[in-house]
Amino acid sequence: MSSEITLFVNPTAGHGRGAQAAQPAASALRAAGFQVRTVVGADADDALVRAREAVGEGTGALVAVGGDGLVNLALQAVAGTDTPLGIVAVGTGNDFARALGLPIRDPATAGRLVADGLLGSLSREIDLGRIGDHWFGTVLASGFDSRVNDRGNRMRLPLGRFKYDLAIALELATFKAVPFKLTLDDGSVREVAATLIAVGNGTSYGGGMRICAEADMSDGLFDVTVVGDCSRTTLLKVFPRVYKGTHLDHPAVSVYRAARVELAAEDITGYADGEPVGALPLVAQCVPGAVRILTGGRTG
């Protein structure tokens, strides 16, 4: 294993926490005897090229310093390779780190865990989702939640989480159930009018909303959560339960498990790890053991 570790940094993550977090994370790695280089791209495409170059050159690990968007970008560089991925979670949502029980907004501790993982070979192989050649770690969202993302991305103000709270309120005012066609790997086809369908490799999205609360990142299967056609009043009652994962026993909610999922619907964009991956129809495949995460002994 190379003693040179690559920090893959999003300096704007968490309203600037990414840039601030890089230093304590790097200090923890250097204190453990590792050489540290930093990769910061001019934009996402440039950053990914640089991360892939580091992996191709044999870096000992790629360490993502940022939020779920940067982790998703890092996955494109390390998935299917022998290069382990470390996580220093300092973004807004941090759902990938949350699913693995890793530190959130504590870069010094996260850096030490990465160092411990490298020195002690303390890591965990987990599954990833794949849509075409694009990898994702947490949830593929479609329906109400993806339309909230669409609306939020079009809004300049307000900033941060308030933007998406407002987007939710505005979308609720006009939202109607979407006719979906859901095809699972056992060949079963379900045509349903649904508020949303979430395909979970991980448990949560949106900063802790446990939409796929029982998903296991090591079982080779997605958890597919279908929230059926329900009134705005019902949705408002069910929505708060998502943070504890207790919505799964509501009559409007169904859960399926499958290694391959096809989603089709008109005028719906899919979002994976919070990033747009294209208009439906989309096919998601669960790939077992696609990446090795440095956990420093933590197992999620």
Explained architecture:
- The protein is of the alpha+beta class and 300 residues long.
- It folds into 2 domains: 118 residues, Probable inorganic polyphosphate/atp-NAD kinase, domain 1 (Rossmann fold, 3-Layer(aba) Sandwich), CATH 3.40.50.10330; 150 residues, Tumour Suppressor Smad4 (Sandwich), CATH 2.60.200.40.
- α1 crosses α5 and α2 packs across α3.
- Its EC number is 2.7.1.107.
- Belongs to the diacylglycerol/lipid kinase family.
- Keywords: ATP-binding, Kinase, Lipid biosynthesis, Lipid metabolism, Magnesium, Metal-binding, Nucleotide-binding, Phospholipid biosynthesis, Phospholipid metabolism, Transferase.
- One of its GO terms (molecular function) is ATP-dependent diacylglycerol kinase activity.
Cα shape:
globular
Low-confidence stretches: none
Query: Beta-sheet strand percentage?
Result: 25-35%
Radius of gyration: 19 Å
The helical percent reads 25-40%
Which structural category fits the helices and strands? Answer: alpha+beta
Compute the average pLDDT. Answer: 91
CATH architecture level-2 label of the largest domain: Sandwich
CATH-defined topology of the largest domain: Tumour Suppressor Smad4
Look at the structure and give the CATH class of the largest domain: Mainly Beta
Largest sheet: 11 strands, antiparallel
What are the secondary-structure elements, in order, as H or E? EHEHEHEHHEEEHHEEEHEEEEE
What's the domain count? 2
Q: Give the termini separation.
A: 25 Å
Number of helices: 8
Tally the beta strands: 15
